[in-house]
Each structure stands twice: as structure tokens, then as C-alpha cells.
Specification:
Elements: E1 13-16, E2 22-27, E3 31-37, E4 42-48, H1 50-55, H2 57-69, E5 76-80, E6 90-92, H3 93-99, H4 105-108, E7 109-113, E8 116-119, H5 121-132, E9 139-141, H6 156-159, E10 165-170
Parallel strand pairs: 5-9
Antiparallel strand pairs: 1-4, 2-10, 3-4, 3-5, 6-8, 7-8
Amino acid sequence: MPSVSAPIPGVDALVTADPGVWLAIYAADCVPVLVLDTATPAIAAVHAGWRGAAAGVVPAALDRMRTAFGTAAAQCRVVLGPAIGGCCYEVDAPVARAMEGAAWWPEAARPTGPGRWHLDLRTAVRRQLVDLGVPADHVSIVPHCTACRADLFFSYRRDGVTGRMGACIGLRR
């Protein structure tokens, strides 16, 4: 596999089984997802916002790991990094329509008023992972809300403009 040392625009998930290759993604309020297949080994770094959650970017990344490296979901360890929480992330009807048929929607969303819901993206992603066969105790969640914790994190929803935080994962040689 060729080595890439520059950003790849328009990509929300990266996978590799090459030792020494670091995968990095940037997020502010979206969920950074880091996956380790302990058996192969192989890794993934995924940026999961509402569009990615609705489109199944995390299941697609695990499926790619399965086809490329033989990854079994039961062997994966996953970390969901800091992201905007269900306490602060209000979505409207068009966003809800993109997701409300998903099995995880009732668990991750709660109505806040007519045509409005609070959405917990980490709950949605965790449920997707568990539904794929990742054991629930193999999914670790950094509990902080990026919008609530201005002292620690950037948040577009909170500030209207923002920086980005990086999440990275690599395999040892």
C-alpha cells in the first residue's frame, strides 16, 4: 500500500494494517472513532457526524476492514472520543428524517419540541458497533461534551467558529 503523508480531502474513514502508518482524523463536535482489530491487527480512524451516522460510515469502515483484512467485529476495541453530547446537540426535522428509521434512533434521540430533537451521536455510533457484533464492553466512550467544556474542547455549535482536535491511531512495527 502506498504511503500517504498529506491529508486526503473528502474522506471520513481510513483503514490500514500497515505497521508504522498513523491514521488521523480531525473533529470539533463530530465523533472521532478509533478502531483496533486486535487479532489481525488492523486499525481504522473514522469521523462520524450526523451525516456519517445516518449513512453508516462506521459500519462501512468495519466492513472494509473485514473484506480487506479479515477483521471480525468481536475482536475489535473501539474508542469514541469527545463530541457534542445529547445535552447540547439539537437537530431539526430534516436531520431527523435522515436518521429516524435507524434502529439506534429511539435510543440516541429525544424530542425537545415540535420538529426538534436532542441527538447523542456517541450513543448512535456505539449502538451501530454493538449491532455489528463489537462487544459492548469493547467500546470505550470519552464522556465529555465538546459544547459544554469550553475549557477543554473546540465546538462549532457553541462558538460558531472553531478549530479542530485530532485523533490518531497507529500499529507498532
